[in-house]
Design goal:
single chain; alpha+beta; FAD/NAD(P)-binding domain; Polyamine Oxidase, Chain A, domain 2; five-stranded antiparallel sheet; 16 helices; globular; binds flavin-adenine dinucleotide; FAD/NAD-bd_sf; Amino_oxidase; L-amino-acid oxidase activity; FAD-dependent oxidoreductase; oxidoreductase
Length: 512
């Protein structure tokens, strides 16, 4: 079966009946599917055009093998912070709440590894060396504070662990700048609060950043925009309140698609959009056919790098500018199918190691495969330039490099027969997304808000949604938030249009 003939629903191309209520949604990622679902709930007739042969977009669960026992790994989104209400609400509405499980994250398994200046250490033994290194770093950069009695052990522990987290999570271009902001601003603010209630661990040498920041929100107010813009993601990614869907995150887009009455047409790539006064004209490539399609309204959820590749007509200059201006952050994941979950022998039950180098982060997914079918390891997760560098290599070279580097920490990978398969996605190379997510870190709140306003802004009958059009870019939450906003905008447009049409009917000469 060729790609173009793969249709998610058995529906053939339908003829829309009610004029003024035909909507085409471009993209079957989470934002496109939620847009379609919400529009159908409001009585619109919707169809979704998806360029690839898979629904879910950047929610991409890979299964090593077939059948329910095949171990799975997330090559796209993998966790949901507990405060992401839209995402959790959709999981509940789709009947998936029973599949929610805790996601064990970076630095939370005491036996996982952390790369430090002293080499690879287990997290449980890293506190002392991290604090020593941080003290030395402080003395290098803030010698005048060497004898400052406020620089007590608690503050050093705070700075040491936050630096470790920044090193593990931030893209390389931001890492050094964030370390500087941390030294110059954050320590002085933290020195003013009592860290006692936030110290954790048997030696009380770790600071619970989540409880500290929520007890003292004023600390955030004193940080630079650059540091602040990244703290949300740092806190989210290391939160103890992260969730995942047992069996794979793709259950969510599949469930939403399964609730749609209209078709989701896979292998239907939109290559052109022309916005006219009374309709939107789409050029669609389906297999070897190119068809023209007219819609009353269109919601485009394709990421902007994919939209830039389309032939665009009828869009104003500001929209064309913002389409070019929104930057995307590369992200690369490399996953390994192992004969067995050897890391469990070493006491690692889950979570992730910060392995640094070119591998950066290594996650140990919860075992959900059947016994005898092996185990999945997310060997490497990189973002920014490091992801782009891995992306530029051939898949074969990328996989070799990751296995070689990671085997320094996990020599079991070199045992004959241990590695059954390796897969990867360099999202920066994927034409359908052009990156892992819209890149807003390091930008001021005002700049982000302005970019977001312009990205979302409809052009006549053409509306926009997708994580890049949301306040939670880089998250599923953002995709859903943008979909709900787009649906509201479509409703407003339609109501205004109907009122205008009714007025015309009463006064065809336009004398009103
Ligand atoms: C590596 C990685 C890790 C992530 N981790 C997390 C995480 O842990 N938690 C979290 O919440 N979020 C995470 N995210 C972000 C999350 O995956 C995205 O924010 C969300 O899935 C975006 O949804 P979307 O619908 O806006 O875009 P997409 O999912 O990209 O959907 C857009 C769709 O449009 C289609 N399309 C593009 N061009 C065309 C065209 N010309 N014609 C037709 N169709 C087209 C694409 O194929 C795609 O299916 C991660 C993302 C990546 C890449």
């Amino acid at each position: 079966m060729d790609a173009a003939s793969q249709i998610w629903h058995a529906h053939a191309f339908e003829k829309f009946e009610r004029p003024g209520r035909r909507v085409v949604v471009i993209g079957a990622g989470i934002s496109g599917l939620v847009t379609a679902y919400e529009l159908e709930c409001r009585g619109y007739r919707v169809r979704v055009l998806e360029g690839t042969t898979r629904i879910g977009g950047r929610i991409h669960t890979h299964r090593f093998g077939h059948g329910p026992g095949a171990p799975s790994v997330e090559l796209g989104a993998m966790r949901i912070p507990a405060h992401h209400h839209h995402a959790l609400e959709y999981i509940r509405r789709m009947g998936l709440a029973g599949k929610l499980r805790t996601f064990t994250t970076l630095l939370s398994d005491e036996n996982a590894f952390l790369r430090t200046e002293d080499g690879f250490l287990r997290i449980r033994e890293a506190s002392g060396p991290l604090r020593e290194n941080f003290r030395r770093e402080l003395e290098r950069h803030r010698p005048w504070q060497r004898h400052d009695e406020r620089l007590d052990d608690g503050i050093v522990a705070f700075g040491a662990w936050l630096t470790a987290i920044v090193d593990a999570i931030a893209p390389p271009d931001l890492r050094e700048a964030l370390r500087t902001d941390l030294r110059r601003q954050l320590l002085d603010l933290v020195a003013l609060v009592d860290l006692g209630p936030h110290l954790r661990g048997p030696a009380r040498d770790r600071v619970d950043l989540h409880s500290l920041f929520s007890a003292h929100p004023g600390i955030r107010a004193g940080c630079s925009a650059r540091l602040n813009s990244f703290l949300d993601d740092i806190l989210a990614e290391t939160s103890p309140d992260l969730l995942r869907l047992h069996g794979g995150m793709d259950a969510l887009p599949r469930a939403v698609a399964g609730r749609l009455r209209g078709p989701v047409l896979l292998g239907h790539r939109v290559t052109g959009i022309e916005v006219c006064d009374d309709l939107v004209r789409l050029t669609v490539r389906a297999g070897s056919r190119t068809v023209e399609e007219h819609a009353d309204l269109v919601v485009c959820t394709a990421p902007f790098p994919a939209v830039r590749r389309m032939r665009l007509r009828g869009l104003d200059a500001d929209k064309l500018d913002v389409l070019r201006e929104v930057e995307y952050c590369p992200a690369t994941k490399v996953a390994v199918h192992c004969r067995e979950a050897f890391w469990r022998e070493g006491g690692i039950q889950g979570g992730a190691s910060f392995t640094g180098g070119r591998v950066r982060q290594t996650y140990y997914p919860a075992p959900d495969g059947a016994p005898g079918q092996g185990a999945a390891l997310l060997a490497s997760y990189t973002i920014g330039d490091e992801a782009a560098r891995l992306g530029r290599m051939s898949a074969r070279r990328r996989h070799r490099l990751v296995l070689d580097e990671l085997s320094v920490v996990h020599p079991e990978l070199m045992t004959p027969g241990m590695v059954l398969d390796v897969v990867s996605v360099a999202w920066g190379n994927v034409a359908w997304s052009g990156g892992g997510c819209a890149y807003r870190w390091g930008k001021s709140d005002e700049r982000c808000a302005e970019e977001l306003r312009r990205a979302f802004h409809p052009v006549g009958r053409l509306f926009f949604a997708g994580e890049h059009c949301s306040t939670a870019s880089a998250w599923i939450e953002g995709g859903i938030e943008s979909a709900l906003r787009a649906v509201e905008a479509v409703g407003r447009h339609d109501r205004a249009h109907r009122t205008a049409t009714a007025a015309d009917r009463h006064d065809p000469a336009g004398a009103l």
